[in-house]
Specification:
By secondary structure, the protein is an alpha+beta fold. Among the domains are: 33 residues; 58 residues, Antimicrobial Protein, Tachycitin, Chain A (Beta Complex). The protein contains three helices and ten strands; from the N terminus they run αβββββααβββββ.
Amino acid sequence: MCQLQEYAKLLCLLLVAGIVNTQQADEFPQCNNVAMDTFIVAIDDCTSYIYCNGENSFRDTCPEQTYFDGNSQECAFDDAGICLLSTETTTIETTNILGEEERKEVEEVEQEEVATTTAATEPPAATESPPATAPPAAVDVKPASPAGGRPHCDAIGDGYHPHPDRCEYYYSCLGGYLTIVRCPFKFGWDYAEERCKPMAEAQCFSL
């Protein structure tokens, strides 16, 4: 009876070990010809990248308004429209395939989007401002960062700013230059302590 229990335990252990060994991490064939601990551009999306590190490899996406620059191996601001150009090429090719009727529908939607964007960006009419009041005594102060945008860096004001949407990213202002930085894997930017901490401990910024 005792031997039977030992065999049952051994059989369960072997089954569990077999299940664990059959579960594998994501495999990225793009990582086959690159050194370990390397970031590469995802071929199908200029805003995405792959971190090549054997079984710990993963794919992630850069924050909005950025693309992955393979030369510097980091997310960079798309001021030159590098990523936008590739999406425009895809849109143009798609438009050429569409029929005349579908093309008119797409143009109407685009015109509506432009009209909505223009209306949203026009400055509001001047109105009488309400009288100033004293601020409340206890306020949860969060760092200044434009809503949905990136912070402005002055040549004299070096510092760090949290990303408004992605906890693992933050902005660094140094000598008037703005850089977007990513914390190590499974870490997030703690805006109160201005440093990367394990994601479970990080006090993430949110709008």
